[in-house]
Amino acid sequence: MNLIIQGEEVFTQDLKQLAKLSSAKAIENIAPEAFRLTDADPESKTAVAAHCTQAKLDFAFVPAGQHLKNFGLLVMDMDSTLITIECIDEIADMQGIKPQVAAITASAMRGEMDFAGSLTRRVALLKGLDESALQRVYDERLQLTPGAEKLLSKAKSLGIKTLLVSGGFTFFTSRLKQRLGLDYTASCQLEIIDGKLTGKLIGPIVDAQSKADWLEKIRSELKLKKENVLGIGDGANDLKMLAASGVSIAFHA
């Protein structure tokens, strides 16, 4: 296996210590702030994880023959994955109830409550909010996760299709689809009447099973195998989607 190390700042002494811990044969610089430690022992994962936690580095053991070009579909969550915020929490902030909604969001992401039920509860708290609040969140608070555009650009250059599948809202996924050139999106639709949120949703909720179903639907249409799918998510409602991916990344999970 190759041991891949990434970080905002990667020090030589950390690389040397990680190479020692993993019995790697060589250290290769493969991109800014990214390194490959070749022929590393995956049994060293516990020790490597401990050192990387202390050094604030990300790591992954990757098969030596694995390359991004091996994939045909990139499936990703939106909130706290493709983007840095939880949109519903920021919308709630416009209503002055962010702490209440954020607490429910965090509990749902940890798998402590049913996602669909938790989303219905949170959306109900937004009743009466002006539709313009959604645009304010998009304009003022939504930021892409660092590196997201680089990943998507590389995927596009390799012909990899992209699916953004979210328990969040179409207001945001539709704009991100256009902005980033995504191929497919699936998300929830807020009901808006006379410019106000009604506290209800239109249509089905995109929950854990729905995310996995969307992955399988697009994978089938593209005639890809499971091993050709790369999945990225952060919450309990992403687990089924990640299980259906050939390689899955728990992103700040």
Detailed description of the structure:
The protein is an alpha/beta fold. Helix content is 42%, strand content 24%. The strands form two sheets. A six-stranded mixed beta sheet has the order 8-7-6-5-9-10, sandwiched between helices. The two termini are 23 Å apart.
Structure, briefly:
The chain contains eleven helices and ten strands. By secondary structure, the protein is an alpha/beta fold.
Question: How many whole angstroms does the radius of gyration measure?
Answer: 20 Å
Helix content: 40-55%
Widest beta sheet: strand line-up: 8-7-6-5-9-10
Given the helix and strand composition, which structural class is it?
alpha/beta
Beta strand %: 15-25%
Main beta sheet: 6 strands, mixed
Shape type: globular
**End-to-end separation:** 23 Å
How many beta-strand segments? 10
Low-confidence runs of at least 5 consecutive residues: none
Order of helices and strands: EHEEHEEHHHHHHEHEEHEHE
User: What's the pLDDT, averaged over the residues?
Assistant: 96
